[in-house]
Amino acid sequence: MEFTELAIALLLALFLLLGSGVWVGLSLVGVGIVGMLFFTDRVIGASMFSTIWTSSTSWTLTALPLFVWMGEILYRTRLSEGLFRGLSPWLGWLPGRLMHVNIIGCTLFAAVSGSSAATLTTVGKMSMPELSKRGYSDFMTVGTLAGASTLGLMIPPSLTMIVYGVITNQSIPKLFIAGIVPGLILAALFMGYVVLWGLIKKPVLDEPDAMPLKQRLYESRLLIPVALLIITVIGSMYSGLATATEAAALGVVGALILASVQRSLTFSSLVESLLGTVKTSCMIALILAGASFLTLAMGYTGLPRGIAEWVGTLGLSPFMLLVALMGVYIVLGCFLDGISAVVLTMAVVTPMLNTAGIDLIWFGIFVLVMVEMAQITPPVGFNLFVMKSLTNHSIGFIAKAATPMFLIMLLMAFLLIAFPEIATFLPRYMTEATL
Question: Given this model, what pLDDT does residue 401 score?
Fold first, then answer.
């Protein structure tokens, strides 16, 4: 392969920069500079300026800080407490009982927060003390929380979806809609795992007495704020009334109203939410800026086209190509966070997908499952460290507890390959409905 030396040189530069502790965004810029300096005759400064400026001023990106801010506001409300009280009366009949609150709570919170870390922290702080007090297994509690919180990446709004949409020039509302059904199926698979655990282990649990129907309905009123936010954010986009950015703005307004009604919005909490938003948004923006320059540099070197042509000569079927990419993303997930893995690979992967005729909206959902797996893959699985900060357990214990959830996500990836309509049906229906 004629691009072997180029690929090896750029990989060595990337590993050297990342291993030296350089920020991911700056590492991507550094690799782009190496590629252009040694393998092209292009002017680096002008190319870097125009590319980074263009990517940083994209109107699509305005949705990103708004969704981050919405999640930061909700993180500081009593929404999680309401979720537990509203859900728990209805789950007593299921094997596994209140363990399902972890999964359903993460699913609902994921629909109003684009971050798996925010989902894990918020639901975990609410459910872990209650489940521990009632005799539930720490192993199951930790594992289901670490795994189910990754639904914050799949169920819209999702920060990773926004990043993917910007990089691949795909419709963010369509990506959001495409993630709904796969996200719900994945949540159902997680619940199936809890049901099997409940049937096999038959744990002795300290459960409260069953509530009468009237009281259960009364407790369910606490789910109304979540439902209203979901309808506002997702419904406005699906109906065509709002773009992703406008829906994010509506979500922020809804979160502020909810926090005000609950009287959890103080001046200090508002400042904290803004600072958290700035930090997260700047981190992602720097990665995106670095990725845009690296993509341009890779285009100048001809590496993506060369690799795509080389893969084409291998005669891989679309299935084998996806399996190969799955292996690549699982390995990358051991060393990089999800957003970095996506922006680092799409410059090379997109030509392959186009050659193989793979739909980029569908692949966006597929790669999100890979990113979810990366969140609980040692040694740098981000959710593992977030969970460690919430508990006294070791990383090894947490990773072991999350392993069944990792295998369930792997099953979900193969389900997407076998039945692509899972991800493509709703976006296609949305397109047809608007014609």
Answer: 93
pLDDT of residue 335: 64
Q: Which one is predicted more confidently, 319 or 93?
A: 319
**Three-class SS state of 114:** coil
What element of type H or E holds 141?
Answer: helix 138-148
Name every residue whose Cβ is closer than 8 Å to that of residue 121 and which is 6 or more positions away in sequence: 75, 386, 390
Q: DSSP class of residue 234?
A: I
Please state the length of the chain. 435
Q: Full-prediction pTM beyond 0.90?
A: no
pLDDT in tens, 310-328: 766 777 888 999 998 888 8
The whole-angstrom separation of Cα 253 and Cα 415 is: 37
Query: How far apart are the C-alpha atoms of 250 and 247, rounded to whole Å?
Result: 5
Cβ neighbours for 184, distance < 8 A, ≥ 6 positions apart = 107, 155
Q: What is the rounded distance in angstroms from the CA atom of residue 36 to the CA atom of residue 325?
A: 26
Checking if the pLDDT of 360 tops 60, the result is: yes
* Residue 157 backbone phi and psi in degrees, to 5: -80, 145
CB 382 within 8 A of CB 375: yes
* C-alpha gyration radius of the chain: 22
Beta strands in 277-405 (DSSP E): none
What is the distance between the alpha carbons of residues 409 and 414, in angstroms, rounded to a whole number? 9
Instruction: For residue 375, report the phi and psi dihedrals to the nearest 5 degrees.
Output: -65, -25
Greatest Cα-to-Cα distance within the chain, rounded to the nearest angstrom: 76
Residue among 145, 17, 181, 217 nearest 404 (CA): 145
pLDDT tens for 171-212 read: 888 998 999 999 999 999 999 999 999 888 776 665 555 667
Q: Which whole-number Å values give the CA distances from 435 to 236, 238, 429, 430, 432, in the listed order?
A: 17, 14, 10, 9, 5
- For residue range 129-165, list pLDDT tens digits in order: 878 887 888 999 999 999 998 888 888 878 888 889 9
Closest Cα partner for 154 from 326, 408, 426, 371? 371
Both tokens of residue 194? 């809890």
Q: What does the alpha-carbon distance between residue 22 and residue 35 come to, in Å, rounded to a whole number?
A: 18
Half-sphere exposure at residue 245, Cβ-oriented, CA atoms within 13 angstroms: 6
75 Cα distance to chain centroid: 17
Q: What is the pLDDT at residue 122?
A: 72
